[in-house]
Amino acid sequence: MSSILLTSIIILSVLGVLLAVILYAVAQKFKVIEDPRIDQVEAVLPGANCGGCGFPGCRGMAEALVKADDFGSLFCPVGGNSTMAKAAEVLGKVAEAKDPMVAVVRCSGSPEHRPRTLEYDGATSCKLATMLYSGDTGCQFGCLGLGDCVNACQFDAIHIDPETKLPVVDDEKCTACGACAKACPKFIIELRKKGPKNKRIYVSCVNKDKGGIARKACSAACIGCGKCVKTCPHEAIVLENNLAYIDFNKCKLCRKCVEVCPTGAIHELNFPPRKKVEAATENAETK
Amino acid sequence: MLKTFPKGGVHPPENKISANRPIEALPLPSKVSILVSQHIGAPATILVAKGDKVKVGQLIAQSSGFVSANIHSSVSGTVESLDAVMDSSGYKRTAITITVEGDEWEESIDRSKDLNKTISLSAEEIIKKISASGIVGLGGATFPSHVKLSIPAGKKAEVLIINGVECEPYLTSDHRLMLEKGHELMVGIQILMRALNVDKAFIGIENNKPDAIAHLQSLETEYPGIKVQALKVKYPQGGEKQLIKSITNREVPSGGLPIDIGAVVHNVGTAFAVYEAVQKNKPLFERVVTVTGKELAKPSNFVVRIGTPISSLIDAAGGFPEDTGKVVNGGPMMGKALSDTNVPVTKGTSGVIVFKETDSKRKAEGACIRCAKCVSACPMGLEPFLLIKLSQRMMYDRLETERIMDCMECGSCSFGCPANLPLLDYIRLGKGEVGKIIRARKN
User: HSE (CB half, 13 Å, CA atoms) of A56?
Assistant: First the structure.
């Protein structure tokens, strides 16, 4: 009886030692040497794995940051400048400060501006609706309101307004990861500079039709009249394919374009009320 | 014993209301808009300028590649503009708009009604002629016909199959064509047989068209090599792969083409257009369109010039019924709702169906109870209930291994679903994404 116990113990012990030796040898042979800084950088990154940096997850970004000589285009939109500075500190490199960005919805086609001419009752997906037809209004460029951007957002920062049927971005929550911009089949959402105190001016329309056609489809459409281009003292606005576009790097937020736009397609956000409010509204009415 | 394909299939109500209405010529419209992209492949290059005078049958846009097609004027008159017009899905596409003045045809077109049975051209000349005449698959897919006839090196066509199935409910244009243009159709098939160098051709017709089967069978002796094959009624028998399986019992491999198993399929409409192009020198500028609907005063089959606004077809069929809810371009199973009725007829418009409000709405969605009706309905042997879930979760690699690219979007799964799930909608979405991934991988 005891001999059976003894033999089993001896066999198992020998086997254990043998396997341990093999495992040790294999581990030495196929050792993966990883830069310990990758882990350190990863710990600094937000861990959202949103893909906003262009890598599949934060670890991919960490590897790229360790490898890169200078950060250049590598930027974590979620963490922003503070995270990049921390990562730079870990690696002993310099991170250039970048302007914080935010997602901007460039469509103002609420039902009052853009009457619905058709009814869609297919699956709730903007991408699918785009494959099937141009949209439920006369504007083939505008927002479909089916919420692909809402589904794409991992930060709960974009929602469809039940009244305007248009997506609204929450400035506080938006990390500018760009997932909504990628999800939008109509390319309406753009990442723009957040601006000082979140002040922003942008053309809230992507309609490339000629003025008359655009106006007929939506009363808030950019008609490509070019008034803003002429008014802008900073040459920040270009008119291409009947559509005005404000370059946020050149814009000095003077708001002159907002005042001259005949359709109200240029939006201003988070500005204090104007001093000459009455004059401004009067101006808009006469136009 | 009637032949059919073994896997899946459904039986939607037939509603072939316009089956006994002879083909009539639609009066010329005052203006036509001819889209430069009416086919699968590259859009044609415009050859005319604003203000040019054109004749019926004149080449106005030239094929811009191998997979592309010539476009001919369908009317005589003056080119009014080359601007974009709305196509059937509501997007604006480049088109040639012509104001109609009289009806002056190119002199080279033989307008006599005499039947010309002698085929004088060689195989290459026939393919060249078909390509020059801008013929595309008239069943609705609009794939350029000369591409299908140019057999790739190393492969050989053994059998020609002519698709007279018309399995879509409501549509009757092919049915009428087989009844009224039987001889021309048979000659057209012989031309296609010569182009492919095959000695066998089958015309597949479902047995809900006994008059067409009997008529074409009576012509069999005059045209050796052509056989009429009656088929059991089942949707989607008109699908290329299903029809080949029904008639020859051969299966096209997944991701393959019919030519891989020696078969070439053409629609009866295409065969008739081939006859007109080769024997009468008449390019493709008009086609038979079924205009139908339960509420429509006069459901009809019209010969329509390409570019005619669809609204004028409906007017000719008795005008819009009061409670029109939806106008569908194509058949009710695979057709698409129009976003505007002023859009022009294209080479692919086989029918226009007017539905009343109550018939055009989808029913409320329920929950999937895994009844597997969609699995037994799928003619390609796929599992739609799984594909919709994978598509909703964006699991594109799984979708690819589940063979979503084999889906031909026939809609049998959505048709039979007791929970009214938008199965095809999400499968289309997933298919689009997987297709993009596959194309990106190839490049």
Answer: 0
Contact between B325 and B60 under an 8 Å Cβ cutoff? The reply is: no
Q: Say which CATH architecture domain A36-91 belongs to.
A: Orthogonal Bundle (1.10)
**Tokens matching residue B115:** 């039947």
Whether B109 has its CB under 8 Å from any CB of chain A: the answer is no
pLDDT tens digits for range B298-320: 999 999 999 999 999 999 999 99
ipTM metric: 0.86
State the pLDDT confidence band at A276, using cuts at 50, 70 and 90. low
Task: Decide if B2 is inside a domain.
Answer: no
Q: The domain containing residue B323 runs over which residues?
A: 291-358
Q: Does residue B19 sit within a domain?
A: no
**Chain A CA closest to residue B363:** A121
The 10s digit of each residue's pLDDT in A205-246 is 999 988 888 999 999 999 999 999 999 999 999 999 999 999
With CB atoms and an 8 Å threshold, state whether A123 touches B426: yes
Chain B contact for A81, CB < 8 A? no
Helix/strand/coil (H/E/C) assignment for every residue in B6-41: CCCCECCCCCCCCCCCCEEECCCCCEEEEECCCCCC
pTM of the prediction? 0.85
Would you say residue B208 lies in a domain? yes
Minimum CA–CA partner of B84 in chain A: A209
Q: Is the same domain home to B135 and B179?
A: yes
